[in-house]
Amino acid sequence: MREYNRETGQPVAEDENVTEIKVLGPGCAQCHSLTEKIKKSLAEMNLAIGVEEVKDLKEISQHGVFGTPALIINGKLKITGRVPSDKQLKSWLEELRPSAQRKT
After folding, report:
1. What is the C-alpha separation between 31 and 50, in angstroms, rounded?
2. How many Cα atoms within 13 Å fall on the side-chain side of residue 74?
3. CA dist 83 to 13, 35, 47, 52, Å?
4. Domain extent for 62
5. pTM score
6. What number is the average pLDDT over the span 15-23?
């Protein structure tokens, strides 16, 4: 419902417990590669989290990002200008898992 509201321009209530993953970029090959890598990693890790692709250059610049692709997780810029390694990406995604379910 949250994504539907966002897509239709309706107000979206910000929930502290909602995880947000954004890939910022104009839709280039690297942007697509990052999005697919995230989706694959989420599936492998059994994390049911959506990935939003932000292609609007004005919105991208509002995040202070000038190199793409860029990855934002819960409002924090994780990487810009390149696709992270699988190991680094999974490390960031593991932080999203509730602490009781984290692998030690």
Report:
1. 16
2. 11
3. 30, 9, 20, 16
4. 22-82
5. 0.78
6. 77
